[in-house]
Amino acid sequence: MGPGMTFSEPETLDEVCSLLSKDPEARCLAGGASLVAMMNAGLLAPTQLISLRKIPDLGAITSMPDGSVKIGAMARHNDVAAFSGFLGAQRIISAAACRIGHPAIRNMGTIGGSICHADPSADYPTAITAADAVVSILGSEGARQVAARDFFVDWLETTLEQGEIAVSVTIPPDPSNASVHYEKFTRADGDFATVSVAACLGMSDGVVQTFRVVVGGVAEKPVRSPEDEAVFIGRPLKDSDIVEFSAALEALCNPIDDMRGSADYRLKLMPRLISRALKRAQADQLVSDSGETA
Amino acid sequence: MTQEFSAVGLSSARRDSSEKAGGAAKFADDYSVPGMLYGAILGSPIASGRIKSIDLTEAKTVPGVVSILTADDLPDRRVGSFIKDEVTLARGYVRFVGEPVAAVAAETKEAADLAAQLIIVDFEDLPSVCSLDEALAEDAPLVHPGQDDYVRTSETPTNGNIFWSASILEGNPDAVWDSCDVIVEDTYETPGQYHAYMEPCSALAEPDLAGRITVRSTAQSIFYIQGRISDELDIPMSNIRCVAPKIGGGFGGKNGVSVQPIAVALARASGRPVKITLSRSQDMEMLRSRHPTRIRMRTGAKKDGTLVAREAELWFDAGAYTDESPAVLSFGMLCSRGPYNCPNISVKGHAVYTNKLKAGSFRGFGNPQATFASESQLDALAVKLNMDPIELRRKNAMKAGDHWLGGQTVDSCAMTQCLDALDERLKEEVSALPPAEEGWQRGVGVSGLSHISGLMGTSAFVNLRADGTVALQTGVVDIGQGSDTVLPQICAETLRLPLESIAYAAQDTDSSPYNWKTAASRITYTAGRAVMQATVEMRERILRDAADMLECSKDDLELDIGGTVRVVGADRKVSFREIAARAFNRVGGPIVGQHAFAFDGPRFDPKRAAMSNFAFDNLGVYVFGAVGVVVDVDTVTGKTIVQKVWSAHDIGRAINPQSVEGQVQGAVVQGVGYALLEELVWENGRLTNPSFMDYKIPDGMDAPSEITVMLIEEAPEATGPFGAKGIGEAPIVGVAPAIANAVFNATGARLTRIPMTSERVLNGILSL
């Protein structure tokens, strides 16, 4: 802890926003999985820690009447991973949640903390982008909603303005009942991804209904291209299309060399992992199709 | 031996297991004493430079700061076991990022850390060399321009940044290459590895009013630390008392000094106790690593697999100071033939200065590097010869009576039995494993291995207590390997007492008999021998007194389990308690035993081998083994998972089998990390991964799901306690080459550089 750091535990979100708006160096403390690690490593020295522990219901996970699922910012990774109300493409969220860090981290870390940290190698940014999720933001100026793919701006940077806090993530329903596969490549167990792929694939009568593929770890934020995804809709899933799709995504990548792998390796992994993720998702579709037939 | 054992061969629980599991065990940093200050160290921010000035003005203004030291406050001495090139705090020059430049003692840790950050050092940047290539380049900047003026234990030739070169020659390889049917040749590269002990280095130095100082620190030897503090700070050893707390692992990383001399200097300057505990990142940046190496090797064999010749040249990247490099290099060279006979062999080796962290002792001590090259090469030979890899090794395996490279006769050797045991298990169990996942390819790889267990001096005292129990003292620090349990087991067995009857004292240079270090896999064999001989001496006295008391000949007596001497075949007996009571009070005085020796095995044989500049000539009691692995390689990503390991060890006798298994399993996992994950990476002279966030060691999920340990007790060591030999290092030695050979077996890609990261494996597969 820095010499002048203060700690508070407000009981309302308004108080949180008010504290945040007055101090650009204040930080919200959710599970602490990222923030405290950054502080321990000497990478961050906030002037204020605002604990969200006492805000009521901020960790709730709720199935809404329209089929969407609303995940409170303080929902722990393990609770998200275990939530059984996700259907179809929504399941990419739990598939990613259960791959975050180690069990101890999943007991502490929260979805709000993870997405606001905005590490492009983390699991949630990629997954909520693939889920077409919407992030609800509250600020001293009022509330707003931002699509996940617009929420992430740069390395460790989100669209949040000073005085704002992300309060929940809403996962829209998926009538196509897509299959999902979260393919995460790490050097070692529990590490951040070198490259990760969140894939949602819905097929009906042999043609693609839903196709969303988002890649993490290869740029400053999750990489997604709705235009290139649109090509797949209404057609059978073909290997040659996947190859072209991967090549198109590569143009959007901006990978770095770090201890988790070289930029070159990341670009090598990307098409390979996309292809594997789609094959696994497709296999699940076939299983559920044959299940319906029987 | 058909006799029933009282203590040896039993898997007694570690004597400190409850204490450690319950959190009661105290490690160095757990100690706090009244008036204690906290120390902090300022490490160099640059890899190479001249110190123009140091400004302490601002640092001194931090509230709570008591003392600040730079080299000017310390005796002007250079120290080192082989070359005296090291100083306590940088004097005039810095040679690696992290090298201690100044030290602060303050009332709080925060104040000490802040003051250290506020010390302003004005450096003149100098060019640096941060790899073997840079250091060996023509006109490379010199890490130690004045190295020829340093005091050295041996006048070995130097050349640029090469500060030690040695060679060994047996037979005449140059004359026989033409007679070989197959030859393989390659260059192998191995990384700097961090010891990753659980407990970062820590020392607490407490001065007293009589001018003595007590040092409680995490280290592999209390006596070495005492001597080193004495040498660095010019304090007589009589005024330095080193005591051992519990130690959280060492693996060679605590073989030398860490922060003890700095803590002592601060304690003397302030007149108060000072504790320094390094953070994990400081520990990684400031202390030592395994030597990165490059090894060029060439091997020739006959069609039937008989080895004919080998030639090797080894370059060890030693970092900025000599430390133990000449010994590590020499040992790596001695292991360059491995546990096989080969009549013509030439090995050259060089230790090279670079502007990096010191490289030093690390589990295996040069042997894992040499064995990676050697066993990769045997595998390549087996492929060329279309021969079973175990069969090739069996054909060339050493046997009792054969000679180690250098000419020592090996007395106990179960190499062939280890290969046989491995062969049998692989044949039975590999095909029974569930198949690899879709997209993954499976491979099997093996390696032979060997190491030593006899080295240097040690001693032991025992004395009989009034109630017939026994007190044992040695100078051996238990760094987690289990000697606090195993040495008392040896003592107990020699007297046919249960383990509970032996009290074992914590180590203290004021009262413990001398031991060199907990290193070189030497404790069970070398210190165990001293314990056994000291106990035998005491046993002789017990039997002599018993003979007096029972009015018979000593030869007619035997020991019953539990502290009773009995006349063979009769119902006449006397207890240790009765013997002790008589001795203490009436006849002969207290019953004690002691033994001291320096390892006394066969020396190198100049008639067999021409050797120059080896750092030692007195080591031995070789151990042998064989390891097999099954790996699955993901052809999509290159990721390699070690599914199962079988590790067979010529242990002589396992004093505590479960403890031995633990050593083997731990070493195998550390070997898996070395093979697949672990690599210290420098960029522009700076270590880029000094944390467990970036430097990954295998966790429970990365470790093989099963490690089968086979203890081969068919070749007891005649000089060892109950036949025992060492086990601490051997099981890591063959892991990396076995995995590399398995990756080849799975994919056809021969990786000659470790760690075999997924990226390197995938590139290997893609370039086939």
Q: How many structural units, i.e. domains of chain B?
A: 3
Strand order of the largest sheet of chain A: 4-5-10-6-7
Assembly of the depicted chains = heterodimer
The helix-and-strand class of chain B reads alpha+beta
Molecular shape of chain A: globular
Uncertain stretches of chain B: none
CATH class of the domain at 179-293 in chain A: Alpha Beta
Main beta-sheet annotation of chain A: 5 strands, antiparallel
The overall pLDDT average of chain B reads 97
Number of strands of chain B: 33
The H/E string of chain A reads EHEHEEEHHHHHEEHEEEEEEHHH
DSSP helix fraction of chain B: 25-40%
> According to CATH, what is the topology of the domain at 179-293 in chain A?
Enolase-like, domain 1
The first-to-last residue Cα distance of chain B is: 55 Å
Biggest protein-protein contact in the assembly: A-B, 21 and 25 residues
Please tell me how large the radius of gyration of chain B is: 27 Å
Q: How much is the average pLDDT of chain A? A: 95
Radius of gyration of chain A: 19 Å
CATH superfamily descriptor of the domain at 179-293 in chain A: CO dehydrogenase flavoprotein, C-terminal domain
